[in-house]
Request: fold
Amino acid sequence: MSAMAMDLVKRALYRSGLLGLYHRIRNRRQLTVVMFHRVLAEGDPRWSSCDPDYTLDAGLLERCLDFFRRHYNVVSSDEVLAARRHGNSLPDRALLVTFDDGWADNHAHALPRLRAAGMPALLFTVADVVDRDAPFFQEQLVAGFRLGRLRVPALASALADMGHALPEAPADTLDGLRTIIAALEALGPAERGRVLAPFIDAMGDGMRQMVTRSELRELAEGGVAIGVHGKTHVPMTRAEDLDAELAAARTIVGNHLDAAAPTTLSYPHGRYDDTVLARTRDAGYELAFTSDPVMNAADDRPSWLLGRLGFEQSGVVDGSGRFRPDFLALYLFRAPRKRLAA
Reply:
């Protein structure tokens, strides 16, 4: 079948209501958790330097929220916690909206759109980024590259000079930069710092990127519950101090909010293992969210360990940049169903 014919089939399946009917039957007792990161309007000066793979246009977020309203019953994290604690029944086709990291643009662009839609959400913030301007080193590299200040061959050469030569020279493209970033992520903080030292002035865009304490509180007051995304954003399977990433991070975020320590957590980079899972529960978390791309059974009490479905902007628009609800439906409605833990 040609690409044009396949495109017409996708549109027809959605517009006919067949995809919606399939979803209402197949996913009636499933909890879908969707995962976003950054939300920016094209007029925002940070748009030209952000990582496009983790950024959604604010107008497209509105379209996604409208899609969720049409096909799901959007729930809050408090409702999921109540179902977990007390066996309260979640509505059919329940959906929870989540955001990772703690970006200032979640306050500037996502919060007003969530309020306008009357939808709750859950934001997981890295404890140490609150009131910090600079983003993570990965995003600083992307910003420097997109602004023309960094080149991939120079970064690859710096890695080689420190004894970490890559098997093949990556292209001087954003995909090539992601190869560099993956190699840097495998290094310890001190060694990574030595590799990046010559490029510090070229990294980032000089703008404030991360959420402030006052913005975090306004998000919480506006219906966005606050959870924890670790202390430093290091993958917890590689954390030198797992207690700091779990227990200390809870305390820090609670202090930022002047409230009780949060009981929800999402794993940075989606990484976890059996040790991390056990320590998560020991640290007092009641719900932990992964990046495992699955829907979660909601027949009984939902699991304390929940999968999430994330998607890039490129996955919900066509070649002309138009929002395609059929793309989103085909992705979300057919996702695997799995209970990750008891």
About this structure: The two ends are 43 Å apart (CA to CA). The longest strand covers residues 94-101. The chain is about 40% helix and 15% strand. The longest helix spans residues 242-257.
